[in-house]
Amino acid sequence: MVEAVAPVRAGMLLDLADRASRESPIERALSVAGATGADVRTLRDAPLGRLNAAMIAFHTALTGRRLESVVACPSCSAVVEFELDADELRALDPGSDGPDGVFDDDGYRVRWRAPTAADLAAVADERDAASALLDRCAEATIDEHPVDIAEVPGAIVDRIESELAAADPLAEVSVGLACPECGTAFDADLDPVGFVWTEVETEARRVLVEVDVLARAYGWTEPEVLALPEARRRAYLDIIRETG
Asked: Is this model's pTM higher than 0.90 or not?
């Protein structure tokens, strides 16, 4: 079941944008998720899909269920628009506290666990963050002797990544698309953390512009403007536009 999130108030949005802009991407994402009422401490050590689900929940509260984005076609560079449903994405969260597993393949025994926000933060400054993340979340042995993941055959690495994707399908959002210009079929990735943070910045800027316009027109302070319900603010803005 996808739980509803309360609408985002303008004052809270501005405070969040100010505070989170000074944080690292993962800490910023946790701050945004916390604004939905999510337990940040739990999210830090939960599978990445859980954090993405919280980010998507914030998007729903901020602008609605539709996630609209664009990507360039890899063949002809045409702009391809696509749309996703936030509730359908959030439903992909398996709800497990920490998916993990073990398999045997070609003499190797591999144990893995789903990466967390804490893992992502730990490898953020690594030159090869993807490899460092896999090294944190998987271990391999042959005859009970440890083997470096970097030395494991590519086919087994592919299997690890496949099992991770199946266990936490919201950790990475990939969308199958077809270019309307040249017909090329391709996959586009959507980063919920980056996508939602861009929305936070855009909406915060919009609110600041509204505050500026109303303050100039009526002499109100920022707290007085932000105390108005959004519909009332929009009504005053319409009056200003109509009267010039």
From this structure: no
